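Milestone M4 deliverable, item 7.
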Amino acid sequence: MNIVCKQCQGKFKIPDEKLPKDQTFSLTCPNCKNKISIDTRSKNDSSSKDLKQESAKTETEKTIFDEVVSGAYDASEKPFDFVEEGVETALLCETDPAILAKIKIAVENMGYHTTEAQSALDALKQMRFHVFDMVVLNEKFDTEDPDNNNVLKYLQQMSMDIRRNIFVALITDRFRTMDNMAAFHKSINMVINLKNINEIEKILKSGVADSAVFYRVFKEVLAKTGRL
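Output delivered:
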């Protein structure tokens, strides 16, 4: 097998019979000591494994979404028994008790009536019965893969008429606070890095205010064109 080091571009050859078969492993470059990842699995084996993993993810999503959509009415799944007219509501999706406590204090200080989701399925069921004004979601809520967050996927599939009225803040350790490109890519309103969790109330207030200004102009345009 011909090996190329990506760091120093050094090239060397190793006899195939000396390489472990059907495995992934690392070699040390003799020139720069960089770790080189080697995969001797056949492409078919690798592709088959990837397809199985993707299929398993899809089946999990279907199970959760189908259960929410097809489930019979159950009053116990409603997030609130009663909410006064004009009171804004927020759904909090965070499993770390310390972080959840800080989020809850901040959101309630802003005047929101809050409820907490215990799992992705619980969050989806609550959103089935109630349109929240705000959703604060940790991207690793009920998942180890932040790019496979079922709550976020559910929000992304909502009708835009409903979704644009929900302010979604994503708690993450991957993106910087108020990273607008990351927020656009994730179809959310705001990114909040965990490093700034102690300032979450100030950050949320700023984001909600900006969103209100944007959608006020947007709704005025819709009204002028007769689409609202």
